[in-house]
Amino acid sequence: MRLDSTVATVALYLIIITLSSSSLSSSDAFSAHQISNPPSFSRAIVHDDANRNHHHFKTKQSSTNKQKQKHFVVASRSITTKLHVASNAGGSGSGNGNGNSSNTNTNSSLRMPTDRASTVVSTAFEALGEKDQYDAVLTGLCAKILDGKYQPNSSSSSNAGNEDVAIDGNGSDGGTSVGTTATQRAFENLRDPIRLMNEMNARKIQASERSLMALIDATAVTQDPRAMSSILSLSLRNGSLNSYGALQTNVLPFPPSPNSSISRITNNNNRRTTRSERLQKLPPLPTDERDIESAAAITTLTTAATCLLLQTGVGEMLVGFENYEYVSPLAGLTLAAMGTVGVVDNFFDVLSMGGSLLVKTNADRLPDAVTEAEVAKAEDMPFELGSGKLTSNITRGLTRLLSVDTERECQCEAASFFVAYSLGLPCFSLRPNALEAAVLMFESHKQDDLDDDGSGGGSMNALDTLLSDAGMMKMLVWLLAPVAMESSLHPQLIASEPREARGLLKRLEEKASFFGVEDILEGILHFDGDDEEKLQERGDLLRWAYAEADLLLRDNKSTIVELSERLIGGASTIGDCVAVIEEW
Fold it and tell me: Which of 174, 347, 359, 500 is 20 to 30 A from 457 via CA?
């Protein structure tokens, strides 16, 4: 075999022959591998370009540093080219038939396009404007978080020695951060996007709609309200959001006393009234008896199915031939009784009028006891039979159990999301509940030692306290928004739950002592007075919040309709919903 003409290759062969007793073919194979895999100058070029782009976001490099980097890139590229030419020369002169020379040519020829591609990417990135570069990096970071492939940069962390925390698609860290809270893990996973947003705000570079949508989606993965509040606050300072919390002043707080004066400006008219006067005009809070309705429907279906089954051959097998002749008539009688009850409950007035007319027509033929008997009234019937309530509960329960209305559900979800966003609540649950609301209120009262980037050592509380009169009203309006939306379109509440708002008040009262906020909560809910006065006060508060939710939704009907249509499509994310409200 011919040796390569370069000094490096000859020296390599001499060292191998001196230190080992391997065959000549083994030395040739090892030499071909060394030539086909030269030192990673191409990786040095890519690493240098990545560092150059990273420092470009922090500070502008001097012209001297840029010139040095260009010289380094050119020198590295020339070294790589020389190695490539040398390997081609050695391969073309090789007469070995074991295929090593062909592998050398193939591997070396494949390495050069990679170097050129990395150079093209670097050149294209430098050709972008400063704003586009920031948007590209921010969008890329958020895409990695959403794909579950992102690892925070531990070298930039203030806590040295901590392991990297990789976030998965469910917002968890896989158990790598032992001893840290969920909020700390959320800020750790959003460390780089938060720092990038801080740098953009410092340099007065406004983020694009696309990058903000990706940032909000990445934050929603963490499922942490403090992280969401921090990101939205940074976006507000960036000047990219205009509608978040913009309607807080449109909600009237609940006055402390019935004689308190309130005013609302509508159509440039300032209307003044008192709390008691307005409450007299407000509609009652919608209620339903879904437990009773569901139980009535299940009982009716079970009884009817059992009776029908007993009248078939299967029923004979179940109860036995000896008992079937007794059970079968009983099942038929039960079905007939159920039908009779349904007819009487729905057509009691018709039957009563028809019976009265029949008695009067045949009064001379009937005994006096019948003609002198009083006509039965629906109020006197047992179990409220004749009022239609019994069959109404059954039909409502069947509707609740069997119907699936995606459009109705999306309308309620759109109302909930719009109210939360427009009132500045960093909780974008499409189906709010009392437990989540109570946790958010208690958590908002705690102070976390977090810096602006989420690390320890500071005293930033990214979440404004909600344990106040205004915060309580916002939470109740959020819980009652789906109820107001559904009740304005449908006579029966199925997708929304009107009891969640009252459940929030109950949970707050039960857990106030555990979190040490009894005095604060007493000033908000006014615990003074007997139980009847408390119940009346709570009822007035809920009616007030329901009226504010209904008014807020009616004033922004077009936005909610568009948001509902987007949710019905089934492919919308939190960022897409924000885009609808912000009119991007």
Answer: 174
The pairing of beta strand 261-266 with beta strand 269-274: antiparallel
Is the CB of residue 501 less than 8 Å from the CB of residue 480? Answer: yes
For 182-215, what is the HEC assignment? HHHHHHHHCHHHHHHHHHHHHCCCCCCHHHHHHH
Please name the amino acid found at residue 44.
Answer: A
Q: How many CA atoms lie within 13 A of 203 on its CB side?
A: 16
| Number of neighbours of residue 562 by Cβ within 10 angstroms | 14
Cα–Cα distances in angstroms (integers) from residue 83 to residues 6, 30, 49, 73, 90, in the given order: 10, 16, 21, 15, 11
What 3-state class would DSSP assign to 431?
A: coil
The Cα–Cα gap between 208 and 135 comes to 7
- The label of the residue with tokens 């239609």 reads 388
317: confidence class by pLDDT, cuts 50, 70, 90: low
Amino acid at 467: L
DSSP, residue by residue, 22-86: --HHHHHHHHHHHHHS--SHHHHHHHHHHHHHHHHHHSPPPHHHHHHHHHHHHHHHHHHHHHHHH
Asked if 502 contacts 440 with a C-beta cutoff of 8 angstroms, the reply is no
**pLDDT above 80 for 36:** no
Looking at residue 249, the DSSP 8-state letter turns out to be G
Per-residue pLDDT reduced to its tens digit, 167-191: 344 444 444 444 468 888 889 889 9
Measured from the Cβ of residue 131, the count of other Cβ atoms closer than 10 Å reads 15
Q: Cβ distance 498 to 482 under 8 Å?
A: no
Give 318 or 238, the one with higher predicted confidence: 238
DSSP per-residue letters across 367-423: -HHHHTSPPP-GGGSGGGTTTTHHHHHHHHHHHHHH---HHHHHHHHHHHHHHHHHT
150 and 189 Cβ atoms separated by less than 8 Å: yes
Contact between residue 483 and residue 497 where contact means Cβ atoms under 8 Å apart: yes
**Residue 35 and residue 29: Cα distance in Å, rounded?**
10
Structure-token match 């429907």, residue found: 297
Q: How far is CA 153 from CA 195, 222, 405, 446, 498, in A?
A: 11, 17, 46, 28, 46
- C-alpha dihedral, 56 to 62 to 68 to 71, nearest 10°: 70
Q: What are phi and psi of 331, to 5 degrees?
A: -65, -40
- Beta bridge pairs of residue 270: 265
Nearest CA to 437 out of 423, 451, 450, 448 is that of 423
Rounded to 5 degrees, φ, ψ at 264 are: -140, 130
d(CA 496, CA 486): 7
Neighbours of 261 (CB within 10 A): 11
d(CA 457, CA 43): 37
Structure-block tokens of residue 118: 């990395």
What is the C-alpha separation between 9 and 32, in angstroms, rounded? 10
Tokens for 162? 């901590």
Query: How far is Cα 157 from Cα 163, in angstroms, rounded to an integer?
Result: 10
CB 525 within 8 A of CB 509: yes
How many Cβ atoms from other residues are within 10 Å of residue 369's Cβ? Answer: 7
The band of 413, judged by pLDDT with boundaries at 50, 70 and 90, is: very high
